[in-house]
Amino acid sequence: MGLLLVAGCGAPAPPASPAPPSVLRLDLANGPDRPLPTEVRLPGGGGRHPLLVFVHGYTCHVAEYTDLLDHWAKAGFAVAAPTFPYTHGAAAKLDIMDLLKQPADVTAVIDALLARAEQPGDPLHGRLDPARIAAGGHSLGGMTTVGALGRWRDPRLKAGIVLAGSARDVGTGFQGEPAPLLFVHGLGDRVVTIDQGRAAYEAVPWPKAFLTLPLGTHRNPFMFPSDPDWARVADATTDFLRWRLTGDSSARTRLTALGPDFDDRLG
Q1: CA 20 to 30 Å from 86, out of 11, 139, 141, 179?
Q2: For 61-73, what is the HEC assignment?
Q3: How far is 48 from 30, CA to CA, in rounded Å?
Q4: How far apart are alpha carbons 125 and 119 in whole angstroms?
Q5: Of the ranges 12-26, 53-67, 132-146, 158-172, which one carries the lowest mean pLDDT score?
């Protein structure tokens, strides 16, 4: 109960916007050899918004998640989606173990965005709330998220979303202040099995939840609105963010109503 009260204190729910979000394309980097071109989706209207940094999967492109990113932005969240240098689909040199450097890239992106948000005249000026930040990702991006809340903890992260991810190679050394996590995984995932996702979930010492998609595969529920589970993923992740970053009690009620596929240990 105390965690929920802290999460909601002084944090009004972001207003939903039916209008398409505006998209900024920023040339960010984490040093000279780690370019991080980043798309930032901003909800319509002014004011400060909670920030979600989203990490794409291995050999994937940010564009493949456009519908999900837009869904979150229309719900009132600023969404930053970097392209990571050695794990995206068009990388000249692919390196799956660059995963171990990506949590620090998440921190670098947050640093850059918050700095710009303090600069008068910048398109991000006054648009981001530094006290309400979450990370999320799909597949290797989910593993990156686990790392950013564990071994490479960024203390500004208040929540995490792990889509078809695990703790492979990043470990489960969760540390720092509690940051609730939502895991979403398909039973039909043959790339990162649901058992791997559950193992990471069970290791989380904080409030947490696990949504099982009985028909879900590794990619389709997160990339394609035509997939029967896509809307469920979009709505559940949005309600989780609303609960954790804005203290929205109605969002918490909707999560509870997800039924037997939702292992609810959020408290």
Answers
A1: 179
A2: CHHHHHHHHHHHH
A3: 25
A4: 6
A5: 12-26
Token digits of residue 91? 């990388």
**Residues contacting residue 195 through CB under 8 Å, at least 6 positions apart:** none
Q: Model confidence over 80-127: pLDDT tens digits?
A: 999 999 999 999 999 999 999 999 999 999 999 999 999 999 999 999
Using CA atoms, how far residue 68 sits from 51, 107, 121, 267, in Å, is 15, 22, 29, 26
- E strand residue ranges, the chain: 22-29, 35-42, 49-55, 78-82, 128-138, 157-163, 181-186, 208-213, 262-265
Nearest-angstrom CA–CA distance, 147 and 103: 6
Q: What is the pLDDT of residue 24?
A: 98
Q: 163 or 4, which is more confident? A: 163
> Domain holding 206: CATH number?
3.40.50.1820
Residues in Cβ contact with 43 at an 8 Å cutoff, skipping those fewer than 6 apart: 14, 15, 17, 21, 49, 73, 74, 75, 76, 77, 78
Q: Which residue has the tokens 């609810």?
A: 264
Cβ(178)–Cβ(3) below 8 Å: yes
Q: How many domains does the chain have?
A: 1
Q: CB–CB of 140/58 below 8 Å?
A: yes
Task: Give the whole-angstrom CA distance, residue 218 versus residue 96.
Answer: 17
Structural domain containing residue 95: 2-265
pLDDT exceeds cutoff 90 at 50? yes
How does pLDDT run across 179-193, given as a tens digit for each residue? 999 999 999 999 999
Bridge pairing between strands 49-55 and 128-138: parallel
